[in-house]
Each structure stands twice: as structure tokens, then as C-alpha cells.
Amino acid sequence: MQTSSVRDPINGVSFKDSDSSSITNGSSLAETFDTFLTLLTTQLQHQDPLDPMDTNEFTSQLVEFTGVEQAISTNKKLDSLIALYNGAQLNDAVGYIDKTVGADGIILMLQDGQSTITYDLGGNAKAASILVIDEQGNTVRTLEGDTEVGHHEIAWDGKDQNGNQLADGLYGFLVTAVDANDKPVPLVQGTAGKVTGVKMVDGEVILEVGELEVALSDVLTISQ
């Protein structure tokens, strides 16, 4: 059963809520212009003849009414433009599906028993190691990394320290490197994986690498 709320008349003009003419629901104010003129006319009829309202105030009301109308129209057009832009971004991002992307991060996705860990060393190191960590915070595998300055990619076969195959899913990892004086070598670590889907979140394109979500803005490398 549909209901409508009826309020007490204002200056002799009845007020009724409706989806088609409500100003607050974002519908065009032009549809309520007749009501506005009725209220304005009624206001004139009920004003004190010894102290009439300044005509400039009526003009100001009309100007404000028009300004609100234009603002609502502008907002609607901006929303439409944003929707079109987001749609175009998402459509372009579809081209990343089935491609391998690399990005900074501390989370990697084990897909089909395989995963790739990437890191960049800022200098030559004496030793570099990679700890793979499960969701419970346990170190399940320790890998030796390359020690030369520059970019490196290490493949992990998804097995733990005892050679057992681990389940596909999300894992954390930590790369550490030290120089000849056992001082930390500056580095940047990341992960790489095949894109399985794309989506839009709060106006930003997100690439899905299995269960791992990577913002398009964080992608550093793309390969077939």
C-alpha cells in the first residue's frame, strides 16, 4: 500500500510529498516551478502592506532558485561523465587479463603451484634471503636470492621447507640482504602473477591476480 505524507498548509498553500516533484530527491526543480510561484504569490498576498518586502528580495529568491537548478543539473552531468570515464577505464583494463603483471608489495599469490617473487637491490650484497610466510605467520620456506645490484626474479614452486606442496592462495614474503659489512642493502620487493580479472573500486581499477588484488597504479611491469 502506497502512502504519502501531507503536511499543514504554509500560508494557505498545501504541501504534499511526491517522488516526481520532491526537491530533495534530486528531481528537476523546473517541475516544481509552479509550486514555487504559488508560494511566492501567496507570500505577496499575506505580507504586511505597511511593511512590504523589498522587491530586491523577491528577485534574489528567483536568482537563488535558478542557481540551485543549475547546480543540480551540473552535478548530474558530472556524474554521467565520471560513469563514462570509469567504464572506459574498466574496458581498457580487460586487456590485462591473462597477462603477467609485476607490482610492489609484500603479498604473493600462489597459482597452480607456482609464484614469482621480484626484488631490486640498491647495491651488491654478500647474502640475500627470502622468507615465505603463511597466513598464520609461520615461515614455510626460505629461499636464497641473487646478490648482484639490480632487478631479480625468483620462482617459488609452492613447496615448503620439507618439500610438501602447499595449497594455492595468498602468502607473505620478506626479502633481506646484507653487504660485506653485514649492513642492510636497500631494496624494493614485489610480486608477479597472471591477471584473472578486473574490477572498479572507488573509481580505481583493480587487477585480480587470483585472490590478490593489485591497483593498476601500482603495476610496474607487464608481460605476455
Task: Write up what this structure looks like.
- The chain has 224 residues and is of the alpha+beta class.
- It has two domains: 6-94, no CATH class; 97-223, Immunoglobulin-like.
- 24% of the residues lie in helices and 37% in strands.
- The protein contains two helices and 14 strands; from the N terminus they run ββααββββββββββββ.
- It has helices at 33-46, 55-93, and strands at residues 6-10, 13-16, 100-104, 107-110, 115-121, 127-133, 139-144, 150-156, 169-178, 187-194, 197-201, 204-209, 212-215, 219-223.
- It has a five-stranded antiparallel beta sheet, with no helix packed on it.
- It is elongated, with a radius of gyration of 32 Å.
Write the layout of secondary structure elements.
Layout: E1 6-10, E2 13-16, H1 33-46, H2 55-93, E3 100-104, E4 107-110, E5 115-121, E6 127-133, E7 139-144, E8 150-156, E9 169-178, E10 187-194, E11 197-201, E12 204-209, E13 212-215, E14 219-223
Features:
5-stranded antiparallel β-sheet; single chain; disordered N terminus; Immunoglobulin-like; 4-stranded antiparallel β-sheet; alpha+beta; 224 residues
Describe, in short, the structure shown.
This protein is α+β, with helices and mostly antiparallel strands and 224 residues long. The protein has helices at residues 33-46, 55-93; strands at residues 6-10, 13-16, 100-104, 107-110, 115-121, 127-133, 139-144, 150-156, 169-178, 187-194, 197-201, 204-209, 212-215, 219-223. Helix content is 24%, strand content 37%.
Overall 3D shape: elongated
The CATH class of the largest domain, by name, is Mainly Beta
- Rg estimate, integer Å: 32 Å
**CATH architecture annotation name of the largest domain:** Sandwich
Share of residues in strands = 35-45%
Secondary structure tally, helices = 2
Biggest sheet layout: 5 strands, antiparallel
Number of strands: 14
- What is the fold named in CATH at topology level of the largest domain? Immunoglobulin-like
Mean pLDDT: 77
What is the chain-wise order of helices and strands?
EEHHEEEEEEEEEEEE
- The poorly predicted ranges are 1-7, 15-26
Helix content: 10-25%
Distance between the termini: 58 Å
Question: Going across the major beta sheet, what is the strand order?
Answer: 8-5-10-3-14
Give me the secondary-structure category: alpha+beta
Q: How many domains make up the coordinates?
A: 2
